[in-house]
Amino acid sequence: MNFTFTQDQLDFQDAVAAMLRSEVTADSIRARWSATDGTDRTFLKQAHDLGLSSMLVPEALGGLGLTTGDFILLAEACGEVALPEPIVESVMVVLPMLVDILDQGLGNSDVQRVIDGVLAGDLRVAVGHAINPCINYADSADWFVLSEGDNVYLLPREAVVLEAQTSVDPSRRLFLASFTTSAEYLVADGDAGANLLRASLNRGALATSAQLVGLSRSMVDQSVQYATDREQFGRSIGANQAVKHLLADVAVQIEYAKPVLYRAAYTVGVSPTRADFAVSHAKSAAARTALLASRHCIQVHGAMGYTWECDLQIWVKRAWALAREWGDQGFHNNRIHEWLLRKNALLGPEFTFGRGSLTDIAKSG
Amino acid sequence: MNLAYTEKQETFRAELRAWLAENVPTERLPSFDTAQGFEAHRAWERTLAEGNWGMVTWPTEYGGRGCDLIEWLIFEEEYYRAGAPLRVNQNGIFLLAPTLMEYGTPEQKARFIPAMASGDEIWAQGWSEPNAGSDMAAIRCRADREGDEFVINGQKIWSTRAVYADWVFGLFRTDPESSRHHGLSKILVPLNSEGVTVRPIRQLNGLPGFAEIFFDNVRVPAFNLLGGENEGWRIAMATAGFERGLMLRSPARFQQASKRLVELYREHGSDVIDPAIESAVVRCYMDAEAYALSTYQTASKLCSGGSIGAEASCNKIFWSEMDLLIHETAMNLLGAKAEIEPETAADFAELGSWLDGFMFAQSGPIYAGTNEIQRNIIAERVLGMPRK
C-alpha cells in the first residue's frame, strides 16, 4: 500500500507543467479563437515532440507503455492552463480505444494505420459517444470513432457530415457528427462494442475530471492574486474574511477531489470491475469542485469577473463545459447510487480499496 | 503507487479482526459521560491494553506494536467495523501521547505512558479559558515557578472529559511578564490535587461531557513540565499535524457512519419521497471515501519520509461538515421519529444512535479550532492571502 507518486512522475509533471505555462498563455488561447482551425500548430508540434501522444500506447505498438496513473498529473496540468486542443482526450480516450480494438483482434487494417498516423503526429482522431451530443475539435480530425447502439465504427473524414455548434467556451469547437452506417467501417459490435463504449466513457470522464481539478486550482490562484492586488477601503480585498472564506471553501474541495482522482486513475488500469464507481466518484467530485470554483472566483473578481476582458472567463467557461461532458454530476451520482444499492455491495471502511487488494478483484472479476 | 495491501498488512488485519470478534462487548456501553459509563469504558481500555491493541503505533516497550500509519488506518477500519466502544482516553492517546513521545524525557514517558495505556489514568484537555477561545494565545491561567514546583492559579473551560478524568494537560502562562504565545508552557496536572475544583458543564445532550476547572494555588512538581519552560506554544504547534488532526478523527469513523446511513436508506427506501435524500446519501458515502483516500495519501507520504501538506489544514472543515451531513440525512430519513431518544434495545434497533450523533456533530465545526478560524488559516497560510 503506497498512495504516492514516484519522484520521476512528479518531476515529469513539473517539466510538462513548466512547458505548458510558458507556451499556453491566456493570450495564446485568445489567439486560437481567431485562428482558422483553433489550434496553435507550433505548440502541437512541441507537445508531440515531448512524446505526449504516445505515452499510454504499449511499447509493442511504438508507444511508451505508461499507465493512466502516470499520465493523470499531466492531464491535470493541461487543465491548469486551460489547454484548448483535446490532447488529453486523444491520449486518454482515443488511443486506448484504438489499442483495445487492435488488441481484441477487432476492426480492419485501418486501425493499425490510424494508430501509426497518430503516433507519427500526422493524423488526428475524434471520438463520438452517445453521452456527449457534440464532438470537440471535430473539424481538425482526420478519422472518427463513432457509434450507433453497440456498433462502433472507424470512419475517415469524408464519411462523416459535421454541423457546427457554438459553445459558450470560445476555445471549444463543437460539431454534431452524422454518418451513414456501413459494414465497411464497422470495427466492433455486440458485447465487444458495448465494452469499448463503456471503457471510453470511464476514460473520458477521468480525462475531464483531471482537467477540472487543474482548472479549479488555476481559478483559485488567479483569484488569490486578484484579491491581493485589488484594494478597497485602503487595503487588499483579500484581507476580508468573507473573501478569504470563498476561496478557502474551494481549496478544501480541491484537496479532497485530488486523491479521489488519483484512485480512479489507478483503478481503471487494474480493476475494471471497480472502475465505474471510482471514476464516477472522481467526476462527481471534480465537477462539483470546478463549478464551485467558477462561482466563487467570479464573485471574488467583482465586476471584472463579469467581463470578456478578464482572462478568468477562459477557465470558468471550460469548467462549465467539462463539468457536464462525459456525464454530468447527475449521471455519475446515479451510477454511485446504483453501486451502493447493489445486493453484494462492498461497503464500509475495510473496502476503500476493494476486497483488500484491487489486483485480486481484477483477477476474480 | 500501489493500492494493494501487503501480506503483512492483511495478516495484521486478520489477527485484529479475530481479536475484536472475541473481545468487543456485545452490549452497548453507557455513555462515557456518565460515572458508570466512564468506568465501563476504562475497563475496555484495560482490555485493549492487555491485548496490546491500545495504541498500535507506540513502540512495543510501551505496550504498542510499533505499527506504521498505514497499519494504524487498518486498525481504525477494523475497530469501527467491529463497532467497538469509543475511546474514553482519546485526549491522552491521540493528543498527549504524540507530544510525550516527541518531547518527554525518558522518565516522563515511563511515568505517564504505561498508566495511560492501561486506562489507569484518563486524560482531560485544558486549552480554552473564558477569554481565550478561538484566540488561544490570550491564555491567562498562571503557573508560577517556585523551586521544584509550579503554583497554578486561574481557570480553564470546555475541558473535555474533565468531570471523571484523572489528569489534565494544557497550556499555562509560566512567564508572568509575557504576552500572547510567548511565555506559555505545557504542564500536566492531577485532577485530584488540592486546590482543583471541577465544575461540570452539561452539553447539548444533557450529559457533563466537559467542565470548567478552577485552580487555586495548585502545586505540581516541575517534573510535570512537558518540553521546555515557556516553549509550550511551539510544542503544541509542532506536534505533527497527522497526530493532531487525522488521528483524532480517523476516516473509518465516517466510513462506518456512511455505511450505516446507506443501510438506513435501504430500510427506508420505499418511504423516501425527497429526492434530495438520495443525493445526500451518495454525497456522504463519497465524502467519507474521499477523506479515507486523502488520509491514506498523507500516511503514505509520511511513511516514505515526506511531510504533511495542505490537507492537514483542510481536514477539520471537511470531516466536520461531512459528519453534519451524514447525521442530518439520517434525521431526514427517520422523519418525525428522529426526535425520539432511544431507550430500549428495540428503540436502538429502529432509531440507532443517530440523534446522539446528530447532536455531537453540531460540535464538530466548533471544537479544535472553529471552521471559521480554519478557513482563515487556509486562506492565509495555504493560499497566501493577506492578513491585513
Summarize the structure.
The complex is a heterodimer of chains A (365) and B (388). Chain A has 365 residues and is of the alpha+beta class.
Report the sheet with the most strands of chain B, covering strand number, pairing sense and barrel closure: 4 strands, mixed
Shape of chain A: globular
* Approximate helicity band of chain A: 55-70%
Summing up helix and strand content along with how strands pair, one would put the structural category of chain A as alpha+beta
Low-confidence stretches of chain A: 357-365
Distance between the termini of chain B: 41 Å
Task: Identify the CATH architecture of the domain at 204-364 in chain A.
Answer: Up-down Bundle
The major pleated sheet of chain A works out as: 4 strands, mixed
What is the count of DSSP helices of chain A, taking H or I runs of 4+ residues? 12
Counting helices, strands and paired strands, the structural category of chain B is alpha+beta
Structurally, how many domains make up the residues of chain B?
3
- The number of helical elements of chain B comes to 13
Beta-strand residue fraction of chain B: 5-15%
Main CATH class of the domain at 204-364 in chain A: Mainly Alpha
CATH topology of the largest domain in chain B: Butyryl-CoA Dehydrogenase, subunit A, domain 3
